[in-house]
Structure formats: C-alpha cells, structure tokens
From TrEMBL:
Record InterPro entries: Formyl_transf_N, Formyl_transf_N_sf
PANTHER family recorded: METHIONYL-TRNA FORMYLTRANSFERASE, METHIONYL-TRNA FORMYLTRANSFERASE, MITOCHONDRIAL
Organism: Roseomonas acroporae
One term under GO cellular component: cytosol
Name the UniProt record assigns to this protein: Formyl transferase N-terminal domain-containing protein
Superkingdom, natural source: Bacteria
Residue span, Formyl transferase N-terminal domain: 81-186
C-alpha cells in the first residue's frame, strides 16, 4: 500500500485503513478466540506476526509507518475504518469526492451504495489467480493445493472490479508470480502484494483509456481461514503459515530507528 500510495500521492484524496480489532468483528479478544476455535493454536503465530507485531513495532520505535507518514506529509486524510458502509466512512468518501475506490485485499465488503459514491466504482488487488482462492488467506490455499497435488503452488495476483460479493468482480488484469521454494503463507502474501502494484497500475491505466473492463469469472468455492484439521494436514506436507524468515523480518522491525 505504501509503495502504491507513493507512486500515486498526487492523485490520492483519501486513505482508509480497516481496523482489524473493530468492535463489529469481535475486537481483538473475540477475533483471537474465534480463530483459535477454528484453526487451533497453529493460527496464533500467523495472527501475531501479521497483526499484533507490526503495531507493537511501531509503538516501540515511536515512528510512523510509511503509509501514515506519507499521508501526513502530503496532507492526505487518513481514517481508520470501523465500518466501511457506515455513515462516518460514507461521509468521508463524499467529502473527498474520489473518482475511483481502490482497495488492497480489504477485509470488509463494500456495499453497492458505497461503491456508487465513486463515479468509476471500485478496483481491488487480490493475491491469487482469481477465481481461485477467493477469501482472506489465498497464499495458504495455493500452497496447500500445490502440496496436495505434488505440484508447485499456483501463485499470482489479480486486479478486479469491486462488487458486493467477495472477490467476484470482473478481472481487469492478472499475472502469475513465481516465488522461492519454502516460502510461507505470510511471506508469499507480502511478496504477492508487492508484485501486485504493477498489476494494479496496469488495470488503472486500462480504465483511464476506456478499455479493459474484463469479464466476471464464474466464482469458485470460497476459501476461508483454514480449520485445525487442514492446518495439521498442511504441516505434515511442509506447508507453513509462518516460518523463521517471517519472524526474523518481524523482529527486525522492532529494532530502534537509526538516529537521523
């Protein structure tokens, strides 16, 4: 998100970040308990590395993350989104008057009324080769399917139209991405989002030129957070949600900022 925002800072009129601990989703404890009941203790390192540790790192370093820092420097409004279809967010969108809504694997579904607030609707970047692996953790399912079939994982990124259904809009641009062997679901997600910036730019360029609307593929089954049995089976085949490289990268972020 920070890389995309830096490249398009002159065009951004509003940035919204979904609150992962919002009350409507159960808060931090409620969500942790829900994931623990479904996925068991194997889910906890994934949740910690991807959600809790970044916030802890920012607090300990007393430094802004790149995206908030860019918004502050450029005077771009930044809001924490508790309810994307609620009155507060709709008022913020109306005030910003965007032409297009762009999301990066956003975890809230925009309603038709919310999408209609932007004349050009919305576009989302999803780290999978849609319609495969719709849902919140597509990199895990790509790894799991590859392991079950004895094949390399089918990694990729897709820019697609936002519709009021999870990852089901028309595909605007798509690209397969080869990742290093042994990558975890967490590591793959980071690499795929970085690769997706160019795919998203391709889709936006096509829209500006009035082409590339694409077609909506027939949705394949939704891929939720994996349950405990699936995670055990995946682990036996060498599939990991988090590996040592993810912890190393996360712990590096805890180091004090270099003076000056």
């Amino acid at each position: 998100m920070a890389r995309f925002a830096a490249a398009h800072a002159g065009e951004l009129v509003l940035v919204g970040r979904s609150d992962p601990y919002r009350r409507a989703a159960g808060g931090a404890l409620g969500q942790t308990w829900r994931h623990l009941r479904r996925g068991g203790p194997r889910m906890l390192p994934y949740l910690f590395v991807n959600f809790s540790l970044p916030r802890l790192a920012a607090a300990l370093r007393r430094a802004e993350a790149p995206l908030p820092a860019l918004c502050r420097a450029r005077g771009i409004p930044l809001v924490e989104v508790a309810e994307v279809n609620g009155p507060a967010m709709r008022d913020a969108i109306r005030a910003a008057r965007p032409d297009l809504l762009v999301s990066f694997h956003f975890d809230q579904i925009l309603s038709a009324a919310t999408l209609a607030l932007a004349p050009l609707g919305g576009v989302n970047l999803h780290p999978s080769l849609l319609p495969r692996h719709r849902g919140p953790i597509p990199a895990f399912w790509a790894l799991w399917e590859g392991a079950m079939r004895g094949e390399p994982p089918a990694f990729g990124v897709t820019a697609h139209r936002l519709v009021p259904r999870i990852d089901a809009g028309a595909v605007l641009a798509q690209r397969a991405v080869a990742l290093p062997a042994g990558v975890s679901a967490s590591g793959a997600a980071r690499l795929l989002h970085l690769a997706g910036v160019a795919v998203l730019d391709e889709a936006l360029a096509a829209l500006r030129q009035g082409r590339g609307e694409g077609e909506a593929p027939a949705p394949l089954p939704y891929c939720p957070f994996p349950d405990a049995a699936t995670l055990r089976q995946a682990a036996r085949r060498g599939v990991r949600l988090v590996n040592r490289a993810d912890w190393r990268d996360a712990l590096a972020a805890l180091a004090p900022a270099t003076p000056g």
